[in-house]
Amino acid sequence: MTYAGLDIGSRTIVLVELDGEIKDFRVIDAGPNPLQRCQALVAGKAYTRLVATGYGRRLALNGLAQDTVSEIKAYAVGARYLYPDCHTVIDVGGQDCKVTRLADIGDVQRFEMNDRCAAGTGAFLEAMARTLEMPIEELGEHALAGTGPVRINSLCTVFAQSEVVSLIARGADSRDIALGVHEAIATRVAGMARRLSPKERVVFAGGGALNRCLRQLLSQKLGLDVTVPEQPQIVGALGAALVARG
Amino acid sequence: MSDYRSMWTDLGLDLERHDTLLQALGGMYQDIFLSQQNRPKAMDYFDFVVSEIHGLRVKELVDHRAAGGKVVGLYCVFVPEDLILAAGAIPVGLCAGAQFAVPDAEEVLPRNTCPLVKSSFGFKVSRTCPYIQASDFVVGETTCDGKKKMYEILGEYHPTFVMEVPQKKTPLGRQLFLEEVRGLKAKLGAETGTTITAAGLAQATGLIEGKRRALQRLNNVRKARPVPISGLDALLITQIAFYDDVARFTEKVNALCDELEERVASGEGVAPADAPRVLISGSPMAVPNWKLHQLLQESGAVVVGEESCTGTRYYNYLTPANDGSLEGQLAAIADRQLETNCACFTPNDERLDDIVTLAGDWTADGVVHYALQFCHTFANEAVKVERRLADEKISLLRIETDYSDEDTGQLRTRIDAFLEMIGK
């Protein structure tokens, strides 16, 4: 009996296979044709049941998945499985950002999510990394080497980009700019979280949680410990697999 | 369908763009409405009305004008339809609900303006709304700053008369609005050459009340579980109420209600009895704005009511008793209009009570608060709605969106998560 969860995000596709516990997982780029990539990912596999989540979850209903579940519930279920005392989930993904409050018994109680704007999401960080001409993976460490953050006033990805360009032109240290970028995003996410009166344990997941600077700033701003799972990107797919198992 | 091209040409429509609009609308209607399962038979009439959306009804208006009558365009529930009818004129709700005309408006108005305001204006400047083209003048109102200033500019393109709606329901506010109703009466008298009489006004009010009662009856059957009519169909009917012939519309809604009451008696519905029930509350949804209902319905929810200007705020208020004199009736009409619990008032706590009552009586599992983007009144009032519903332990999802489709994916995620949350 193998169950599977497929998280079809805007940037990555994650597959988690589950028997007694996590059997295997894969993280790949979503690319321009995510359905094709999903099909390749599960080709030749036979699952008892597969549930899809993520932005493209409905794509998978064409023969891949038996059911879908929202990312909000999937992350809640996944985080709760990894940390049974989890009461708050923060998920910074490729194009959205969500905060979910769980009840003591694990049900989703309330949630907040950014609207169409990319402020506070992975897309924002990506755009800033591009402007600073460094790989997204290095942006967080680069920022941590900064000494005093430069204030980034705009949270709009497009405006912030021109702000960063003019800061570079004025000779600001790129580490301080990077730190300022993280400050801006952490302030936004923490503000969203505070609307829900976050309660420990706070689990920070999604691709954004790979960024050590963002983790530290979020924890500081919330005044709470923030736990990042070993594989923060797979929490949604894990949740979907758990929903599949029932 | 008859050929209306010469009529549209006479009305000054931009035929090429108008064709594009009608084609898009036809496709949308097919996908969203006609594909629904187990629709009531009496929806045939409303399907017909939509198939003739810029045809037959417009022709009736054009014929009315040819016979010497006037047509008065409006955008808001505060404009008293009965007063217009009593002057022998036809009130008609104008196009304001499509993204189609928004880019035209954005060439003139600021982009950071509510889509309803932009769409209203855009339909005029792009010459694609036959209703405004067929109207002698528009009656606007001061229900928000965006509309108030837009009407000044709209007045450069089309005769526009603005009624002031007060911001507080104080005695002074009521007196002001009564003066505004008198002002509209004078304007109608001057435009139509008709003197509004007590008997004529009483008759017109009777017609409007008949329409409101029919819509209340329709709303009432939505209390049933399973629900006998989809949220989309019920919304559509309220939208049509703004522009269809009043007597015919009332008769057709009542005929539909006969069928729906039979459905309720036999336990027949359009969705499973255990489908999550949602009440929508907030900004108006002008035709063809069906976005939120469609998303909710696709995700398996049933919309059981709209606390909206295209919902209870349009039909729940009836005229208070009065002495039957012309003055007495005008005062009663002014009072009736000001009953509307619109976010343009401060304070507006009665609306919070309305939402709680509707959610309770219609056994809603949750409320979706709908604010049009840049609709500051409803978006800010949502804060109070959220607090009140938390006190009442009613689940709430707040949505802010416009007429475009670009945020559909994110809305779907929120809606799915909300339904998972309430649908236990």
Question: What labels would you give this structure?
Answer:
heterodimer; A: about 250 residues; alpha/beta; Nucleotidyltransferase, domain 5; five-stranded mixed sheet; 8 helices; 10 strands; globular; B: about 425 residues; Rossmann fold; 2 domains; four-stranded parallel sheet; 19 helices; about 55% helix; about 10% strand
CATH class value of the largest domain in chain A: Alpha Beta
Uncertain spans of chain B:
none
The largest contact between protein chains, plus residue counts on each side, is: A-B, 17 and 14 residues
Q: Gyration radius of chain B, to the nearest Å?
A: 21 Å
Give helix % range of chain A: 25-40%
Please report the first level of CATH classification, the CATH class of the largest domain in chain B. Alpha Beta
Strand order of the largest sheet of chain B: 2-1-3-4
SSE string of chain B, helices as H and strands as E: HHHHEHEHHHEHEHHHHEHEHHHEHEH
Under CATH, the homologous superfamily of the largest domain in chain A reads ATPase, nucleotide binding domain
CATH level-3 fold name of the largest domain in chain B: Rossmann fold
Q: Which architecture of the largest domain in chain A per CATH?
A: 2-Layer Sandwich
N-to-C series of helices and strands of chain A? EEEHEEHEEEHHHHEHEH
Which structural class matches the secondary elements of chain A? alpha/beta
What fraction of residues of chain A sit in β-strands? 15-25%
Cα separation of the termini of chain B: 47 Å
CATH topology of the largest domain in chain A: Nucleotidyltransferase, domain 5
General shape of chain B: globular
As laid out across the biggest beta sheet of chain A, the strand order is 3-2-1-4-5
Uncertain runs of chain A with pLDDT below 50, 5 residues or more?
none
Main beta sheet strand tally, sense and closure of chain B: 4 strands, parallel
Q: What is the helical fraction of chain B, as a range of percent?
A: 40-55%
Can you give a write-up of this model?
The complex is a heterodimer of chains A (246) and B (424). With 246 residues, chain A is of the alpha/beta class. Chain A is 39% helix and 21% strand. Chain A folds into two domains: 1-83 and 231-246, 2-Layer Sandwich (Nucleotidyltransferase, domain 5); 85-228, 2-Layer Sandwich (Nucleotidyltransferase, domain 5). In chain A, helix 6 (174-194) packs across helix 7 (212-222). Chain A is globular. Chain B folds into two domains: 5-194, 3-Layer(aba) Sandwich (Rossmann fold); 203-318 and 343-422, Rossmann fold (3-Layer(aba) Sandwich), CATH 3.40.50.11900. Helices cover 54% and strands 10% of the residues of chain B. Chain B is built from 19 helices and eight strands. Chain B has a four-stranded parallel sheet with strand order 2-1-3-4, with helices on both faces. In chain B, strands 6-5-7-8 form a four-stranded parallel sheet, sandwiched between helices. In chain B, helix 7 runs parallel beside helix 9 and helix 11 runs antiparallel to helix 12. Chain B starts with a helix and ends with a helix. The model of chain B has no long low-confidence stretch (mean pLDDT 97).
